[in-house]
Amino acid sequence: MRSVALHSTPSMLALPATLRSTLLIASLYPFRAATTLLPPHQIALASYTATTTYSTMAAADSADAQAREGGGKPMLARHRAKQEAEAEAQGQPGAKSGHFPLSYKEGLSQWWAGISPAVTENHVLSFVPYLRQPPTHTQTGGKPASNDSSMKVDTSGGKEAQPVMTDTETDPYGPRMWHSDLVPLSGKNRFLNEFSVERLEEETQNNLVMLHGYGAGLGFFYKQFEPLSRLAHWKLYALDMPGMGRSSRPPFNIKAKDREGKVNEAESWFVDALEEWRIKKKIDKMTLMGHSLGGYMAVCYALKYPGHLNKLILASPVGIPEDPYAVNEAMPTEAEANQLAAEFAESGTEGVGQQPSTNQKRPPPPRRPYSKWVTTLWDANISPFSIVRLAGPLGPRLVSGWTSRRFSHLPAEEAEALHDYSYSLFRQRGSGEYALAYILAPGAFARSPLIRRVQGVGRQYLDAAHSGPEPDGAAAASGKAGADVKRVRETGVPVVFYYGDHDWMDVKGGHDAEEKMAAERRKALENATAEEKRMENGDVKVQIVKKAGHHVYLDGADEFNDMVAEEMRDVEARQERLEGAR
Hints:
It is a single chain. By secondary structure, the chain is α/β, with parallel strands linked by helices. It has a domain at 453-478 and 485-581. It contains 20 helices and 13 strands. It has helices spanning 17-28, 63-69, 75-89, 104-113, 117-125, 225-228, 259-280, 293-304, 324-328, 334-337, 372-379, 384-391, 395-406, 412-426, 436-439, 474-478, 507-526, 530-535, 552-555, 557-581, and strands spanning 44-46, 49-51, 164-166, 176-184, 191-199, 206-211, 234-239, 286-291, 309-315, 440-441, 445-446, 495-500, 540-545. The strands form 3 sheets. Strands 3-4-5-7-6-8-9-12-13 form a 9-stranded mixed beta sheet, with helices on both faces. It has a two-stranded antiparallel sheet with strand order 1-2. Strands 10-11 form a two-stranded antiparallel ribbon. Helix 7 (259-280) packs across helix 8 and helix 12 crosses helix 13. It starts with 16 loop residues before the first helix and ends with a helix. The model is unreliable at 1-75, 93-97, 335-368 and 474-483 (pLDDT under 50).
């Protein structure tokens, strides 16, 4: 959720406070137009290595790289250092840089260069240890950034990436195979971008699948790929969620009429794609890890498609607590959603939901103290990335207001690469981002809170399909086969919650979920058979990552990776125990 760019939109309240101020500052202080238009640069992905002369890219052949060799710093780091030095000179040590560290000229240069998402993703992955030339397919995002063409799928020859092998001479934890792929799904323009790491010369017995947060991409997990692929017999996958990252960007259309149906359809838009991907990969069970919105969708997946998880790892997931306003707030209307039609040339005239019926009378929900323009933008389903796209040459400067703070703790070159990667994704044509207004209300509270549903994780029935991400209740218990027939049900899935010690996501949501799931476990064991008790595998725990905020996997990468590796070893131990209990 926080890995998005601006706060001038309905989705902005789901973002960090520093970025939420972006639109407000922009509205209060008018932008000055740049007077010099810099020439465009030729961007190429040769041998899957980013090479460009664009000044804000941290590529080895860039001007900033030359400056670093002489003791200089990359662009964003230079701005921070300069402004912090000025603050110290004024007796304000430790003051942070301005709202938008990128200058107008540098922002215009980045916008004009239009570096492609494939190039920026490749550059981020080049920081993975022992991976000198990361593989990067160019079937999507291979062209300079454009709202119209850069994310169209190109399946013509020569766009695929060949796997890269690292041997034991260059990789002390090898041999390993690294691969970038675009996985086709059923339907029109449905593809998932995938990056995987596989250990060679040994059989794959377990799979870890990682889902990023709102508006981000698989490249944000660059600090996890190498350490977590050291474990024997494990294969790692990271996916760009549908309509985000470098996955294809089909039109996002909601056809349901009622409130619950709209939420269900928005959630299923993501989890159905994950299930189809799992089937195509012939994965029986996996350990699923999701960050923020990815964590929310991981819970939804566990509810709708039970029986396919060994463990659920939720890194600062959004949508767990309940808020009275969020669960009663009106959904986006058809007229409001249609304002986005201009961004979808191929979306036709399909409606996006209908206005709720006014025949049903109920007391108005308690209002949260949000200004009218905030709730109006949110309900109109204007995404934060719409602002980046509409800002044109000012887009990179606006994005720098977030990236300069979000990645300030990282080495300068990595922070620079993540800024470029973020902007190249943020400016792409909108798609999956528009699901947010159907899933969350202003304030980042879920319209259908997970705290109402999380008790069903690991306790779903396995003998019937589920129409949506809802827990099986008393009605399901009676079943079509009759109450006298014993139905097959899951016997628990271990769940781990991670929060940063200064996370804006409230850890109380994790503890409340822990209590609710523990109560469901006790209830299940009361009526369990002897076999079900032997096979019981459910437990929940909440852990804190030190010196980390919402992006726990980046802020506290070393501790986070150690924790996840321990959970992966725990999966192996549980498998051995359960096999002996059969």
